[in-house]
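HUMAN: Spend a minute on the protein record below and explain its fold to me.
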Amino acid sequence: MALSKQQKMIDLLSVKNQGRIQRLTEDILEIHLQSGDFSSTEPCFLKDEKDREYVVLPQKALQHIISLVRKAHEDKLKVELERDIISLTPIDFDDAMSVVIAKLESLRGKDGSLPNINTLQFTKEIKKEYPNLFLDFHVY
């Protein structure tokens, strides 16, 4: 049975691999594993001499976490945009949403991420630019 994304994240952040890190010289550190092993797929939780905590993550795991955060941000933006479009009384919600999504996609960064925006202000700008997509009660 396939694991859910939430279960994969819990497994990823489980504390199986623990160790202590010790500075030997200014540019050399030594890791002493207390449990688990140094894995290419799982994080390793380390403490130094002053009990400061560190996590060593494999690059693939970090990229996975970043993609989950990006996806959550995009989902949140879309839900907020839906709410704000509805508050402006669209004539056809799907038409208005498709215009908003197209404008939002044009703001996507080179790294593939969407910026933080004020969704209400963004949708109001769309309404000004495309007034035919929304009802205007001031006319009636």
